[in-house]
């Protein structure tokens, strides 16, 4: 009788642990993993296609004044993405926050870009704060 009670308690404890872990896992998976070729984290369910995400990362790599080791130390988050359609073109306005996880005294850099998908992907606007990005 005592063994059955302790077994039920253990099963109940395991079930409670699983029930508390599942919402945390859902929260963690709310951010999609970056596609190959992009280190920018977009929100889960983002409607930005992988080709545009990879292009946005390529813009940061080639047009923003980060040394390679600096890019590897930073995190890049797409915190505001707006998508609109004009005719056959799709326009993506992407705002990216870039910071160092371990350096909380420096303000994060903000990179704003507009990418147009008109059959090919091209950059139309690039602005930044705290890091030099050129067209």
Layout of helices and strands, plus pairs?
Blueprint: H1 2-28, E1 40-41, H2 50-63, H3 68-73, E2 74-86, E3 89-100, E4 109-117, E5 121-129
Parallel strand pairs: 1-2
Antiparallel strand pairs: 2-3, 3-4, 4-5
Total count of strands: 5
Number of structurally distinct domains: 2
Assign a percent range to the helix content.
25-40%
> Strand-residue fraction?
25-35%
Strands ordered across the widest β-sheet: 1-2-3-4-5
CATH structural architecture of the largest domain: Roll
| Terminal-residue CA separation | 75 Å
**What does the main sheet amount to?**
5 strands, mixed
Q: Determine Rg (CA atoms, Å).
A: 21 Å
**Class inferred from helices and paired strands:** alpha+beta
Along the chain, the helix and strand elements come as HEHHEEEE
Return residue spans where pLDDT drops below 50 for at least 5 consecutive residues.
24-35
Helical stretch tally = 3
At the first level of CATH, what is the class of the largest domain? Alpha Beta
Q: What number is the mean pLDDT?
A: 82
């Amino acid at each position: 009788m005592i063994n059955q009670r302790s077994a039920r308690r253990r099963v109940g404890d395991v079930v409670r642990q699983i029930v508390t872990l599942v919402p945390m896992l859902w929260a963690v998976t709310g951010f999609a993993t970056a596609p190959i070729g992009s280190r920018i984290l977009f929100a889960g369910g983002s409607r930005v296609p992988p080709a545009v995400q990879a292009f946005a990362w390529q813009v940061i790599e080639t047009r923003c004044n980060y040394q390679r080791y600096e890019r590897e130390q930073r995190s890049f988050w797409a915190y505001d993405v707006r998508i609109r359609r004009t005719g056959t073109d799709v326009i993506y306005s992407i705002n990216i926050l870039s910071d160092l996880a371990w350096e909380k005294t420096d303000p994060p850099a903000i990179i704003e870009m507009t990418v147009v998908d008109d059959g090919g992907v091209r950059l139309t606007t690039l602005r930044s704060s705290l890091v030099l990005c050129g067209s």
